[in-house]
Fold this sequence. Notes:
By secondary structure, this protein is an all-beta fold.
Amino acid sequence: MLLSSLDLSRNPLKLQxxxxxxxxxxxxxxxxxxxxxxxxxxxxxxxLANFSSLRHIKLRDCQLRDEFPSAVFHLPxxxxxxxxxxxxxxxxxxxxxxxxxxxxxxxxxxxxxGIIPESISxxxxxxxxxxxxxxxxxxxxxxxxxxxxxxxxxxxxxELAGLVPSLVSLSKLTILDLAYNKFEKGSMYGxxxxxxxLNELYLDSMNIHDEILPYLAxxxxxxxxxxxxxxxxxxxxxxxxxxxxxxxxxxxINQLQGQYLALF
Length: 264
């Protein structure tokens, strides 16, 4: 079949009998596949890695299970891979090649585990990396700051440890979410205030022992600041009045002192 685009997303479909494998097996010319929100309740067919024309794969919230075929990551034209919110879907990140065209990678709320490989820096076109609520461990790779096209970095609710590397080179970031990991005590003084395009900042339970708030005052595009359950001390500086776009501030369970109400 020469079908190039298949979008059946957000329908009350149950693709179980016949299943996903039966549906797709002859659609070798597919470029766009979106079944998000449909009840598939099966594994991802391994032959999908042979569909060399695929550019967009969106299988979010499909009740997928078993191990994701890692060869799919290496599809030569793949730009968008969205597998999020499939809690029974397991897998590991492969060694990435510098020929990849991948721009958006959504694996949030899946059973993906293991380390984030240093070779992730080979994803030169990557704009979105969404790995929240998985089981990744080890360190944030030192090569990650080389992903200078990133606008969204989500690594929260994993088992990452060690120190957070400087992300000052990620100047296009609009959303940074590193919350709820196992990072060591460290300082973000040298780079956090350089990310002037940030709209949303999530650093909850990050073992932050700094008087960090004054360093956020020039991030004037911020709408959400969430830094609860840390050891942040000092007071909320008067320069916070520069943050005119703020709609949410969550600083609970810290060591702040002083008076704040006059600032708001």
